[in-house]
């Protein structure tokens, strides 16, 4: 029974008291009055009445039973608090059992169906319908939506939503909730001096409480007589409306959580993405299996009738183009995935393309192979051109690739093809389960916005356009109003490049361009942008021309293409990939849009149809449909397919002038931002299927001073520069979320740009500078560059000192310091030094800093040695299974769990709890994790053979959403569900056995499998087919790593060979054998591991004799570290930290070393005594190292005794040692590799010189 003596929280108590002390007493149902009736008689009467009413629950209406119950107990209300409690509880029970609404009578399956529909509606962005169904069903109370409505003061909607879950008089909690809401509404009306509205609220909303507390109601009424209700003593500390709502909301949440009517309604069930569609697809697969003559490629076009491969009586299914259920265009990643993503069927292509169905004014009658769309539920087959481009027969001259054919022995067809949903498609008889996901998938708070000034950069001229590198999150491109191009590393504050505008080949330019440059040589950058892989960037100038550079890392940029693109200014530039070919899209003052080949510069398409200069372009794709949105200065929006057949769209943009368009990061939502000639600015969201404005965002001043720029991030937030501020919006809320003035240094309409992860925001300032804003993750990212900044600063200081003693030219100074100094045509002939924030100064400007720099040189760097348990934080993970050696170890991608594979083929999963000591739920040494098992007690155990398990090579790979693990231990490959530990399927029985597994980064249906027989099999899980077999190694495969930007797969083998394979045709591009140091002989079968750097261009190679850094394009060895003595213990494993700034290396003597990844210098050594017991055997050492995916200074070790240890530095240190300064070691630019063809003596000399130059010895 509920205890009514619960001390309900008082809204706005303390310094923000909003009401009299009398209000702190919970509102009573009735005044107490004397009772003379015998208590025993009352108790018996209540018992009989309750029994009668519960028995009659199926035959009497809820209102009738409630009326009888009140009449039976009316004379005792208020006299006995326990009886009052009993009535409240009884009412709740009767209401739950009687079926107040039709949903209350639902079975558990019907109830779960409602949750599936809620998830479906939420994923399809039917926000209003979602909340309507939540309210009508009363199954899930969306606290986030409730909070938003309270913050916005939508009181009618607040009460309407609440009414689906409780009424005013249900219990004391409910009464208190409604009272606080109506009281706040009343006070806000008084605060606005809206007396008529206040009276209306008093009479209609608050009078209901008068019967419970007449004195309180009188005092509320008296507030009408005051000029300012704050004259009331108890309301004197009432703040503004916003703060009052926030304080009230805290108390409302407490009341809701305490209210028994909301029990089990505040948490949405844990569901896999698109669960309803998955179930539908499973039903279709089942129906197809029941067909008498099942076709291999069924064409299922409707859900209205059961599927049958042969339509009876010649009936035809409804056309997908006219089927309202299927819609016009499937959603992309992050939205509503194709049904085919969950099933094995291959479709037939649609005969008529239906891209942007609602936006096509007059779609052409002819079909376009590159722009066709298939019915819902099935992916479109590859077009004939693609098939011809990648033949099934092996090309001549490439014996390394074993292309399979239809009758190949390597293609093992099954009755029930396997796959994983989303990541890898699940088999039809499996119900996917994942870790918890919220009802609204993108749950971010305003604190996730980058609002803290972290860097200040001095560009020197006004930034007009900026763009962050898509892979290297701290590399920023800047184009300015004088045509300059700047390339910044915002982590180190270093300007890597500064280039002035210059025509590369003036003689090849058109006469209009040459004439324009002679008349007015001033040129501005209109747009600068990176290609999707970050290997190219394009610059659109205000006069005719587009320049494209190739980027090779650091300060290495090279001229790639120069295109005389348009007559007049080139207003925008973008990259797109029609037909999987990288292209450049431009638009200009000549009213045209043009598409150019990004490799050759050849023009591919020209789109004409605008009646005014084209202001912006926005290429995009939906499934296999590639298209371009364009906007012109007359406010027209048009959409084009790559077919030269004219535009498909002709709509008006708000403002009718300068408009830009952008999609959310997942490509599911389209936005535009525009400013009219009168200065009125608009940000809107578009309904693509109808070509209509779906939502208009508020918060702009009536007349913006300049054209407003905007950007999107995290699929959740919008940002725009206006009114000397940065304004942020939640995509689902039209009101301004928050604003930032960036220390008051902004122009009226600043330029802005988010990095890819939304952790950094670049903002232009009025003093020709750039402010880098960061959130907590961004600040953490930038802090990783502090050591690097320290080293570069000292290097610059040393160069300045030498320059003053013996003046050098600018070029010589740059070479001496290995720092790029910028020289321009406008620069003076005096020597220039590049400062850390990129500003250029004469040498004399830095003289006062010499003393400080020289003093720094006297500081002696010392290697950080950790030998005691008190010198670091370590945690041994407990287990009860006593497994043998830990052979494989990996953190889950979310960072909340650690997965190990032991040599006995058993998997161990430790999960960290979320509690007061660990609010994030992430892995930490402060809180021990739990060895997790499902309720069934099942273990994830791999298939094994009769062979010795110690000799088997275990391997596993984890899906990106942590839902599935693919694993093998010498036997068949097994697919496990990480939540239930169930074996979903097994395949590929040995021989040969699998020795390494790697998921394709973009399609987890594709798996690269390294084999014991030295081959690599490219396996498609969904169709259960080996697509290609790669041959090039001579011993078993020991490492595989994909690079999506480079479209390559790097493999390593026990033969100490590295191979690079192209992922388009799976051909071998290049190979190289490791350089084994002299005097060190590896074992007969020595593992070689590979792992890509965060830049996806370089990769780490780990061998028992060395660690090395290679560049994937040319397979050049950039750096190499070798233990000094040939008798030193071998390396057992190594891995990058999550930010690729550190390398964790373990050795067979149980030592762990932490290297600086930038220069391969040791900065911390962790001795075994720091984490192992004193009496441990010398045979115990780490076999594998795993780095935390989010915390760069946390790693875990898997040991030979079956133990797993997690290590972190002390909280006071926060990191593993300090990188050695430049003067204590070799320059960071030194290549730690002997020249090709060097003799053995030269190599020995090189190794000794390199070790001596490093200033340290790993083993003594």
List keywords for this structure.
single chain, 1260 residues, alpha+beta, Methylamine Dehydrogenase, Chain H, 5-stranded antiparallel β-sheet, 5-stranded mixed β-sheet, 19 helices, 60 strands, 19% helix, disordered N terminus, repeat, Topless_Znf, WD40_rpt, Topless_fam
Average pLDDT: 75
- Percentage of helical residues? 10-25%
Per the principal axes of the C-alpha atoms, what is the gross shape?
Answer: globular
Number of strands: 60
Number of helices: 19
- Termini separation comes to 73 Å
CATH topology of the domain at 452-787: Methylamine Dehydrogenase, Chain H
**What's the Cα radius of gyration?**
34 Å
Organism: Apostasia shenzhenica
Protein name: Protein TOPLESS
GO biological process, one term: regulation of DNA-templated transcription
Keywords: Repeat, WD repeat
């Amino acid at each position: 029974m509920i205890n009514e003596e619960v001390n309900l929280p008082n809204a706005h108590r303390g310094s923000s008291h909003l009401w009299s002390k009398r209000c702190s007493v919970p509102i009573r149902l009735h005044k107490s009055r004397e009772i003379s009736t015998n208590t025993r008689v009352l108790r018996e009467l209540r018992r009989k009445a309750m029994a009668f009413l519960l028995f009659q629950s199926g035959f009497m209406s809820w209102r009738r039973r409630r009326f009888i119950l009140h009449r039976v107990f009316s004379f005792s209300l208020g006299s006995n608090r326990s009886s009052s409690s009993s009535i409240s509880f009884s009412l709740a029970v009767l209401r739950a059992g009687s079926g107040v609404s039709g949903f209350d009578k639902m079975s558990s399956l019907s109830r779960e169906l409602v949750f599936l529909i809620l998830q479906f509606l939420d994923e399809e962005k039917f926000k209003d319908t979602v909340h309507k169904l939540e309210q009508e069903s009363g199954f899930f109370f969306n606290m986030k939506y409730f909070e938003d409505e309270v913050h916005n003061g939508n009181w009618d909607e607040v009460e309407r939503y609440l009414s689906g879950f409780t009424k005013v008089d249900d219990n004391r909690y409910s009464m208190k909730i409604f009272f606080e809401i109506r009281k706040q509404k009343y006070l806000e009306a008084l605060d606005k001096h809206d007396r008529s509205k206040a009276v209306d609220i008093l009479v209609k909303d608050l009078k209901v409480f008068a019967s419970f507390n007449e004195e309180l109601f009188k005092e509320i009424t008296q507030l009408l007589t005051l000029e300012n209700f704050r004259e009331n003593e108890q309301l004197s500390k009432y703040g503004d409306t916003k703060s009052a709502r926030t304080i009230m909301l805290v108390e409302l949440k407490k009341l809701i959580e305490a209210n028994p009517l909301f029990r089990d309604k505040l948490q949405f069930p844990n569901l896999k993405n698109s669960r309803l569609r998955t179930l539908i697809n499973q039903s279709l697969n089942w129906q197809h299996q029941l067909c008498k003559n099942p076709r291999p490629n069924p064409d299922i076009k409707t859900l209205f009738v059961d599927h049958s491969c042969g339509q009876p009586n010649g009936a035809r299914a409804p056309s997908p183009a006219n089927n309202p259920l299927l819609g016009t265009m499937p959603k992309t990643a992050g939205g509503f995935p194709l049904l085919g993503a969950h099933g094995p069927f291959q479709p037939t292509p649609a005969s008529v393309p239906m891209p942007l169905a609602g936006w096509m004014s007059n779609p052409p009658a002819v079909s376009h192979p590159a722009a066709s769309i298939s019915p819902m539920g099935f992916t479109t087959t590859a077009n004939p051109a693609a098939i011809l481009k990648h033949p099934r027969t092996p090309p001549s001259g490439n014996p390394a690739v074993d292309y399979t054919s239809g009758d190949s022995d390597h293609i093992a067809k099954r009755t029930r093809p396997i796959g994983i949903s989303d990541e890898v498609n699940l088999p039809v008889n499996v119900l996917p389960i994942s870790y918890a996901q919220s009802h609204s998938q993108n749950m971010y708070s305003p604190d996730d916005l980058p609002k803290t000034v972290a860097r200040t950069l001095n560009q020197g001229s006004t930034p007009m356009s900026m763009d962050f590198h898509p892979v290297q999150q701290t590399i920023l491109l800047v184009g300015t109003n004088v045509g300059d191009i700047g390339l910044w590393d915002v982590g180190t504050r270093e300007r890597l490049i500064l280039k002035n505008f210059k025509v590369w080949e003036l003689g090849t330019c058109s006469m209009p361009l040459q004439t324009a440059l002679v008349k007015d040589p001033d040129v501005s950058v209109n747009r600068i942008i990176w290609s999707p892989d970050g290997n190219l960037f394009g610059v659109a100038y205000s006069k005719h021309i587009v320049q494209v550079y190739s980027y090779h890392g650091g300060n290495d940029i090279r001229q790639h293409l120069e295109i005389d693109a348009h007559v007049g200014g080139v207003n925008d530039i973008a990259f797109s990939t029609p037909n999987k070919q990288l292209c450049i899209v431009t638009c200009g003052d000549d009213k045209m849009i043009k598409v150019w080949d990004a490799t050759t510069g050849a023009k591919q398409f020209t789109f004409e149809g605008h009646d005014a200069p084209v202001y912006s372009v926005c290429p995009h794709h939906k499934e296999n449909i590639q298209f371009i949105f364009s906007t012109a200065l007359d406010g027209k929006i048009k959409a084009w397919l790559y077919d030269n057949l004219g535009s498909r769209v002709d709509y008006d943009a708000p403002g009718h002038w300068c408009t830009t368009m952008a999609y959310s990061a997942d490509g599911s939502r389209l936005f535009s931002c525009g400013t009219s000639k009168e200065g009125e600015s608009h940000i809107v969201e578009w309904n693509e299927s109808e070509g209509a404005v779906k939502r208009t965002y508020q918060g702009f001043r009536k007349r913006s001073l300049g054209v407003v720029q905007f950007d999107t991030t995290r699929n959740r937030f919008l940002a725009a520069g206006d009114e000397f501020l940065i304004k942020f919006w939640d995509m689902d809320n039209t009101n301004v979320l928050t604003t930032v003035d960036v220390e008051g240094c902004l122009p009226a309409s600043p330029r802005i740009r988010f990095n890819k992860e939304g952790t950094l925001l670049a903002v232009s300032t009025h003093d020709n500078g750039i402010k880098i804003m960061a959130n907590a993750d961004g600040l953490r990212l930038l802090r990783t560059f502090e050591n690097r900044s320290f080293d570069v600063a000292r290097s610059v200081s040393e160069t300045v000192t030498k320059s003053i003693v013996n003046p050098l030219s600018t070029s010589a100074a740059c070479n001496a310091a290995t720092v790029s100094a910028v020289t321009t045509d406008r620069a003076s002939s005096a020597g220039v030094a590049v400062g850390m924030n990129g500003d250029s100064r004469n040498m004399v400007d830095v003289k006062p800093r010499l003393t400080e720099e020289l003093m720094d040189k006297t500081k002696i760097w010392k290697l950080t040695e950790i030998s005691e348990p008190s010198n670091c934080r370590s945690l041994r993970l407990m287990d009860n299974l006593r497994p043998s050696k830990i052979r494989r170890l990996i953190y889950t991608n979310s960072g909340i769990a650690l997965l190990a594979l032991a040599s006995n083929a058993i998997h161990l999963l430790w999960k960290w709890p979320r509690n007061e000591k660990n609010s994030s739920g992430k892995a930490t040494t402060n809180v021990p994790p739990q060895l997790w098992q499902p309720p069934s007690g099942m273990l994830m155990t791999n298939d094994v053979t009769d062979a010795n398990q110690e000799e088997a090579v275990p391997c596993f790979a984890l899906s990106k959403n942590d839902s599935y693990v693919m694993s093998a231990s010498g036997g068949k490959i097994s697919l496990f569900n990480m939540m239930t530990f169930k074996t979903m399927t097994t395949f590929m029985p040995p021989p040969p056995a699998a020795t390494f597994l790697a998921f394709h980064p973009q399609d987890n249906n594709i798996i690269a499998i390294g084999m014991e027989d030295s081959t690599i099999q490219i396996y498609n899980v969904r169709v259960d087919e080996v697509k290609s077999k790669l041959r090039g190694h001579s011993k078993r495969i020991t490492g595989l790593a994909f690079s999506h930007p480079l479209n390559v797969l790097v493999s390593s083998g026990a033969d100490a060979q590295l191979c690079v394979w192209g992922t388009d045709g799976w051909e071998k591009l290049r190979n190289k054998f490791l350089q084994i140091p002299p005097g060190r002989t590896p074992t007969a079968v020595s593992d070689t591991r590979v792992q890509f750097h965060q830049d996806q261009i370089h990769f780490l190679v780990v061998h028992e004799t060395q660690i090395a850094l290679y560049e994937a394009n040319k397979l050049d060895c950039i750096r190499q570290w070798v233990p000094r003595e040939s008798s030193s213990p071998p390396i057992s494993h190594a891995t990058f930290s999550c930010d690729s700034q550190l390398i964790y290396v373990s050795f067979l003597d149980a030592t762990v070393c932490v290297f600086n990844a930038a220069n391969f210098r040791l900065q911390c050594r962790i001795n075994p005594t720091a984490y192992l017991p004193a009496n441990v055997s010398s045979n115990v050492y780490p076999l594998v190292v795993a780095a935390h995916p989010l915390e760069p200074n946390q790693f875990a070790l898997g040991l030979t005794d079956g133990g797993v240890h997690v290590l972190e530095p002390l909280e006071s240190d926060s990191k593993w040692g300090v990188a050695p300064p430049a003067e204590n070691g070799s320059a960071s630019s030194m290549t730690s590799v002997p020249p090709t063809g060097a003799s053995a003596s030269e190599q020995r000399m090189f190794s000794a010189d390199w070790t001596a130059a490093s200033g340290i010895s790993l083993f003594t």
